[in-house]
Specification:
The chain is α/β, with parallel strands linked by helices and 384 residues long. It has two domains: 11-261, TIM Barrel (Alpha-Beta Barrel); 310-383, Arc Repressor Mutant, subunit A (Orthogonal Bundle), CATH 1.10.10.920. Helices cover 39% and strands 22% of the residues. The chain has 14 helices and 17 strands. Strands 9-10-8-7-6-5-4-1-11 form a nine-stranded mixed beta sheet, sandwiched between helices. Strands 12-13-14 form a three-stranded antiparallel beta sheet, with no helix packed on it. A three-stranded antiparallel beta sheet has the order 15-17-16. The protein is globular, with a radius of gyration of 22 Å. It starts with 10 loop residues before the first strand and ends with a helix. The structure holds iron/sulfur cluster. Iron/sulfur cluster (SF4) binds at residues 19, 22-23, 26, 28, 30, 69-71, 104, 127, 141. Iron/sulfur cluster binds at residues 19, 22-23, 26, 28, 30, 69-71, 104, 127, 141.
């Protein structure tokens, strides 16, 4: 099975897996101490992109490009310039294209900001995560608050569209510290915030450190209270919550993420990269050497593809829709159900409405403030 461009693809993702260190909570396809492979990996990425484009009978017009990682801010300028030339050669860039690069504090030089702008990158997503150096260092992330301020001070002259990522619930960050950090964050020259709960993924060092009681996590109830406190703070400073974890000033919602949430096609390149062509999901090889050799020999490096069942598609649409401020169409929830099932879901829906966890507006089901934090349970109730 190969990625189909029967539906136009307007978004691409490019994965840069190299990182200067490995964070203990990281579940991503990321490689520390592999920088020697950067030129070879770059060549493979370019080959993968060119081969994909050569198989499409037209030039695809892109509306978003996302360079994620890993730490794409470590992409050497000369190689990135080469990559940008190839992208402009094989694709059409829409005039209002959103081109994002993920940047980690402590990995940038001042000259890079102007360089990135010169090749068309117009959005930065900065992995701030926390302003507590000690808590970050405990988790293997070697950046400092100074790095964050250095980055923002210089980036703001080139970038109007800056987003920051924050992690709520890190061990070692007190409630008062978090509140003080956020009072600073809302004064920064940023247009977007992604605030995620710390996830403890199996097989990560964090997982073992928590399992062996070397680290203890804050209580769930306290983290939930902080989520609501933070949400109110962002809203009172002009951000709109447009998704459970995402807040933006008007007009600065992430267009690339919206492609994922709307289940539009996107083609991804690189190690372990995941694509969706509107029907099938694909994942590339996650082993660096197998990926490199595979691309170099002209082989398909897809190692996994999956066709979702109608039931899975419905579930995905409900989950993605409910996480967003605009909600999910009631018709989507009821789609494909027989009359008994519709009756059951209607009863459960009424129960959720009575508990003020969900509201209905103009045919859309929308989570209430109370419902935001129990989204998973609501989806389960709607589907069971
Ligand atoms: S910087 Fe990001 S991608 Fe790299 S190891 Fe840390 S969390 Fe993972």
């Amino acid at each position: 099975m190969t990625y189909s461009t029967a539906l136009d693809t307007h978004s691409i993702y490019i994965h840069w897996p190299f990182c200067p260190y490995r964070c203990h909570f990281c579940p991503f396809v990321a490689l520390a101490s592999h920088d020697d492979f950067m030129p070879r990996y770059h060549a493979a990425l370019c080959k993968e992109i060119k081969e994909f484009a050569s198989k499409v009978d037209r030039k695809l017009a892109l509306k978003t490009i996302y360079m994620g990682g890993g730490t794409p801010s470590t992409y050497p300028d000369k190689l990135l310039l080469d990559m940008s030339g190839i992208l402009k050669d094989v694709f059409i860039f829409n005039h209002d294209i959103e081109m994002t690069i993920e940047v980690n504090p402590g990995t940038v030089r001042v000259e890079q900001f102007a360089f990135w702008r010169s090749i068309g990158i117009n959005r930065m997503s900065v992995g701030v995560q926390s302003l507590n150096d000690k808590a970050l260092h405990t988790l293997g992330r070697m950046q400092s608050v100074k790095d964050v301020y250095f980055l923002l001070e210089h980036a703001q002259h080139e970038f109007d569209n800056i987003s920051v990522d924050l992690i709520l619930g890190l061990p070692g960050v007190t409630e008062n510290e978090w509140k003080a950090y956020l009072q600073e964050v809302v004064t920064w020259p940023i247009k977007h915030v992604s605030m995620y709960f710390l996830q403890v993924h199996e097989k990560t060092p964090l997982y073992f450190r928590v399992k062996t009681n070397e680290l203890s996590l804050p209580k769930d109830a306290a983290v939930v209270d902080l989520y609501y406190w933070s949400r109110d703070l962002f809203i009172s400073h002009g951000f709109t919550q447009y998704e459970v974890s995402n807040f933006a000033k008007s007009g600065y919602e992430s267009r690339h993420n919206t492609v994922y949430w709307e289940r539009e096609p996107y083609k991804a390149f690189g190690l372990g990269a995941c694509s969706f062509d509107g029907s099938l999901r694909f994942q590339n090889e996650k082993n660096l050497m197998k990926y490199l050799v595979g691309v170099e020999q002209g082989n398909d490096v897809t190692v996994f593809h999956e066709q979702l069942t109608e039931k899975q598609v419905r579930l995905e649409k409900i989950m993605l829709g409910l996480r967003r401020a605009k909600g999910v169409l009631l018709d989507t929830v009821m789609n494909g159900l027989d009359s008994d099932e519709i009756e059951q879901v209607t009863i459960r829906l009424q129960r959720l409405k009575n508990h003020k966890l969900i509201a209905q507006e103009e045919g859309y089901l929308i989570l209430t403030t109370e419902g935001l934090i129990v989204e998973n349970e609501i989806v389960t109730q709607l589907l069971s």
